Amino acid sequence: MEKKQSELCFEILRRFHKAGILDKLILIGSWCVYFYKDYFTGIPYIDQITLKTRDIDFLIDSPSRIRRNVNIPELLEDLGFVTIYKGSKGYIKLDHPDLILEFLVPEKGKGTDKPIPLPRLGMNAVALRFLSLLTVNIIKIKVEDFNVSLPHPANFALHKLIIFQRRFKEEKALKDRNTAVEILKALVNKGEIAIVRQVFNSMLPKWQKRVIKGLEEIKEKEILNILSASTAR
Amino acid sequence: MRGVIKGVLAEELENSLRMEKEYEEALSKLLKGCLAVRKIRGREYYYLVKRIDKKVKYIYKGKISEEERKEYEKAKILRAKYRKLLSQVKKQIRFLRSSLRGKEAI
């Protein structure tokens, strides 16, 4: 299944690239960790132990910047994706036995529990808090003849440290927490402590407190020391 | 608390059960039957081959538009695809249930 799943993921990326929308999308979620392996070349890395689910999430920073009309359900129909409307609000997901595709946008202002329409893509998106942290520091990973945008691993990990505390399901929280700590440790091994500190310092004080609270909860002293040193400066 | 792996498997089982329903629904919504062509004196006449109860029936359609022909062709391709994926989903459900020891409520 693993190989089939990766092939399907690549095919989706290829089609998005061909349709001219891939550069407007940021790949987030557990699939990010899969693509980070290129970023951590030569560094002991966590891809082997990170559980990839079937969810593949794309973040759109500014939906209004998408100028092309690309009907995504139609674009992926022949691959066997079926469109479903989740919950009473009608969030659109595309289901396939190997992957479940969903779009997300950063929540702005007071937020809403309604889906954000993406009329040019024939989809809608879920607005979630804290996602703006994943849009500010993007890295590009080369895949075949195109680039995939991902949040910098430091942003990804710090975001996970915030959201694991908000998870309803404890096992999901544990998964987020473990992934965050392993990625931060991989960054430390890569000698990118400065970037971790820089990202942490750029966060809102409220968010910083949440990160610290999360690390204290799990007694992760090594990372706590790194971040505490950055706040003391 | 369930372990991380068990939690992920339980979530995947929920997803697969949902997908099973979706593919069954998608299959039921597709155009029924396949087109069969007969050439009589150089002209093409179409029949709709359809299972009605236990019998396979040939329903005369005569000449049909290119658009209608394409719709049936697309339905045929999607039906094969959805059936294959439905069988994959059913296998996943069996695997996930046995991994979670099936009898446990999740």
Describe this structure in words.
Chain A has 233 residues and is α+β, with helices and mostly antiparallel strands. Chain A folds into 2 domains: 1-131 and 138-151, Beta Polymerase, domain 2 (2-Layer Sandwich); 152-233. Helices cover 40% and strands 20% of the residues of chain A. Chain A has helices at residues 2-18, 30-35, 72-75, 153-163, 170-189, 193-202, 205-217, 221-232, and strands spanning 26-28, 55-59, 82-86, 91-95, 100-106, 116-118, 123-128, 138-143, 146-151. In chain A, helix 6 (193-202) crosses helix 8 (221-232). The model of chain A has no long low-confidence stretch (mean pLDDT 90). Chain B is an alpha+beta fold and 106 residues long. Chain B has one domain (4-99). Chain B has helices at 4-29, 66-99; strands spanning 34-40, 43-52, 55-62. Chain B has a 3-stranded antiparallel β-sheet, covered by helices on one side. In chain B, helix 1 runs antiparallel to helix 2. Chain B is elongated. The A-B interface holds A 51, 53-54, 77-78, 80, 82, 84, 95-97, 100, 169-172, 174-175, 178 and B 1-8, 11-12, 15-16, 18-19, 22-23, 26, 77-78, 81-82, 84-85, 88-89, 92.
